[in-house]
Design a protein that fits this description.
The protein is α/β, with parallel strands linked by helices and about 375 residues long. The mean pLDDT is about 95. The strands form 5 sheets. Strands 10-9-6-11-14-15-16-17 form an 8-stranded mixed β-sheet, with helices on both faces. About 35% of the residues lie in helices and about 20% in strands.
């Protein structure tokens, strides 16, 4: 709630009776600047059970208990929150939190499926410490990441939708490391920001998301299964494994092209004569080409990224078109990284090239905006 209010949004808090056992009404009123109520009889002349839902741009239920999910799925309306859920015509986001057994119960799974089928976004809960000594899936995602998902939805306005509901997508992010010895490695400057933006955007559109993250120091996006890797070989194994059930694979990571033939078991020491060690390299497997040509799941859409600078042999787009044909993917997102542009920046610009000859220019904007443009193109191809 603080993140919404501090970023300029007008927030109305609708607690349930159970919620007030955790946080009192005076606290909600003080933080939101508005009185709060749980029933439909307070300020009845303003018809709050209808007005609040009708005027909202977004409804967020966080945490969403198994009880609230059940009520929402079955259309019950016994308090102000459930009445609001029935009258809201804006996007609705549920962030579930409960014990693993409750989340995995058939009744809860059916309720979640019902809500998703109606267009609501039900974020997958995180894994971790629960109430008491229990650990498992059911933990409330980080509030900052729930907020980021909501921002994704609000930024799209009337275009917001759940066109990826029922789809499993795989996104890779970050840069791989190839070790020379126990402390040194070959790496690159990829921050993982674009891959994480793609994961958040896919969640906001209703997808089940697996994010294979290579050496990324960013918080886990809400509702995303994060698999952490270090080397290109590990990245390949995890992406190929996840891709067998994926409707789309977006290779936003920057895998190292080469790795040392031999990895020293001990730290390589400086030579007394000042000479440098000779390091023999061998080429890493081409993950994008492998997925594009072998297609672990037939019909899946495969997206690659090309960080190009242009050279004497051709322009950035010339080299990118040749790469698209060589890799065999459906879409190639082309970044001009001359002078180190893009890496670590919150903004990006690109051209999305299609194997069908299409080209979509995406002007400089946030990486989240580019992510949605990419998913727009993926969704078009999934619908064919």
């Amino acid at each position: 709630m603080r993140r919404f209010t501090e970023s300029g949004h007008d927030v109305t808090v609708i607690p349930t009776e159970a919620a007030l056992k955790f946080v009192g009404a005076p606290t909600w009123a003080a933080l939101s600047g508005k009185p709060v109520a749980t029933d439909v009889w307070t300020d009845v002349h303003q018809v709050p059970h209808v007005r609040i839902g009708q005027s909202a741009d977004l409804v967020v239920v966080a945490p969403a208990t198994a009880n609230v999910l059940a009520k929402a799925a079955h259309g019950l309306a016994d308090d102000l929150l459930t009445n609001t859920l029935l009258t809201a015509r804006c996007p609705v986001v549920f962030a579930p939190a409960m014990h693993t057994e409750m989340w995995e119960h058939a009744a809860t799974r059916d309720n979640v499926a019902t809500l998703r089928a109606r267009g609501a976004l039900v974020i997958e809960p995180a894994e971790g410490r629960l109430t008491g000594a229990d650990t498992g899936k059911g933990r409330l995602p980080d509030p900052a990441e729930i907020f980021e998902t909501c921002v994704e939805i609000l930024s799209r306005g009337t275009a917001a939708g759940t066109d990826l509901v029922g789809r499993h997508v795989v996104v890779s992010a970050g840069g791989t490391r190839e070790y020379l010895d126990p402390v040194r490695f070959l790496g690159n400057r990829s921050s993982g920001l674009q891959g994480y933006a793609l994961a958040r955007a896919a969640v906001a559109r209703g997808a089940e998301v697996t994010l294979v993250a290579a050496n990324v120091a960013l918080p886990d996006p809400a509702g995303v299964k994060v698999v952490r890797v270090e080397t290109t070989a590990q990245l390949r194994d995890e992406v190929l494994s996840a891709a067998t059930s994926a409707d789309a694979v977006v290779m936003a990571a920057a895998p190292a092209d080469f790795r040392p033939v031999d990895v020293s078991a001990a730290k390589i020491k400086k030579a007394d004569d000042g000479s440098a060690p000779a390091i023999q390299l061998t080429q890493n497997p081409d993950i994008l080409h492998e997925i594009s040509t072998e297609r672990p799941r037939p019909g899946a859409v495969v997206v690659g990224f090309a960080a190009e600078t242009g050279d004497a042999t051709g322009s950035v787009l010339d080299l990118a078109r040749a790469k698209l044909a060589r890799k065999g993917c459906d879409l190639l997102v082309v970044n001009d990284v001359s002078g180190g542009a893009v890496f670590g920046s919150p903004d990006n610009e690109a051209v999305i090239l299609g194997a069908d000859g299409s080209a979509v220019d995406v002007p400089r904007g946030t990486k989240a905006a580019l992510a949605h443009e990419i998913w727009d193109q993926v969704a078009l191809r999934l619908a064919r």
